[in-house]
């Protein structure tokens, strides 16, 4: 079943929040979801302790680069969708998770720094396509977008992504 990974080498861009929101949407649609917490800070474990999660959402904790592929494959066998929440620093584990993903989602806020971090993640996806010898679809998407106005920086970043043929999701968080 499809594996969706949230990737960014930058912390605080909204990976964990988006992973939880997406898992909630799939669960609300009656789908079985496994959420993999692959961040040593264990944000999803903390989240699951706050409130009981729906029966259709199962949390798996992954410990390291050595285990991530097996964790993903085990989850894949047990769910309609697997969502992987990764750490915010560049590690081998992120590369391995990308190589096993059917879709990579890269969140960013509309800042120049976030855009350059997102571009690094895109580069990593391109490298992992070569490793896995297959296409690995990915999309970048904006988080913490002000509801009314799209500021100039956001529009500039949009244009740069478009010039570089980097696909941007119309959905924002
Ligand atoms: N769309 C959003 N609007 C407001 N706050 C957000 C949004 N997305 C994330 N946050 C907040 O930003 C912080 C970092 O988000 P988080 O999902 O933990 O990022 P990451 O997993 O990339 O480190 C959290 O406190 C989270 O509640
Ligand atoms: Mg996180």
Global Rg: 16 Å
Percentage of residues assigned to helices: 40-55%
Shape: globular
Mean residue pLDDT: 94
Number of DSSP-assigned strands = 6
Uncertain runs = none
- What structural class should be given to the helix and strand makeup? alpha/beta
Number of domains: 1
CATH superfamily descriptor: P-loop containing nucleotide triphosphate hydrolases
How many alpha or pi helices? Answer: 6
CA-CA gap between termini: 25 Å
Spell out the helices and strands N to C. Answer: EHEHEHEHEHEH
Strand order of the largest sheet: 3-2-4-1-5-6
Specify the CATH architecture.
Answer: 3-Layer(aba) Sandwich
Q: What's the level 1 CATH class?
A: Alpha Beta
What ligand species are in this complex? adenosine-5'-diphosphate, magnesium ion
Question: What are the SSEs and their pairings?
Answer:
Layout lengths: L2 E4 L8 H14 L4 E6 L4 H8 L6 E5 L6 H9 L4 E6 L5 H8 L3 E6 L3 H21 L5 E5 L9 H12 L10
Parallel strand pairs: 1-4, 1-5, 2-3, 2-4, 5-6
The structure holds adenosine-5'-diphosphate and magnesium ion (MG).
Structure explained in plain terms:
- The chain has 173 residues and is an alpha/beta fold.
- The protein has a single domain, classed as Rossmann fold (3-Layer(aba) Sandwich), CATH 3.40.50.
- It is built from six helices and six strands.
- A six-stranded parallel beta sheet has the order 3-2-4-1-5-6, with helices on both faces.
- α4 crosses α5.
- It starts with a strand and ends in a 10-residue tail after the last helix.
- The relative contact order is 0.19.
- The model has no long low-confidence stretch (mean pLDDT 94).
- The site of adenosine-5'-diphosphate has 13 residues, from α1.
């Amino acid at each position: 079943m499809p594996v969706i990974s949230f990737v960014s080498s930058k912390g605080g861009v909204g990976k964990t929040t988006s992973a939880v929101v997406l898992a909630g949407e799939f669960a609300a649609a009656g789908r079985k979801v496994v959420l993999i917490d692959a961040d040593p800070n264990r944000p999803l474990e903390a989240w699951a302790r706050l409130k009981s999660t729906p029966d259709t959402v199962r949390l798996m904790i992954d410990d390291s680069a050595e285990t991530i592929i097996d964790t993903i494959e085990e989850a894949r066998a047990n769910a309609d969708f697997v969502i992987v929440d990764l750490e915010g620093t560049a590690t081998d584990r992120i590369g391995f998770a990308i190589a096993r993903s059917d879709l990579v989602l890269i969140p960013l806020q509309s800042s120049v720094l976030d855009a350059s971090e997102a571009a690094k993640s895109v580069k990593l996806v391109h490298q992992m396509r070569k490793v896995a010898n297959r296409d690995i679809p990915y999309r970048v998407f904006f988080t913490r977008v002000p509801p009314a106005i799209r500021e100039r920086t956001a529009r500039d970043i949009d244009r740069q992504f478009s010039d570089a043929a980097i696909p941007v999701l119309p959905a924002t968080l």
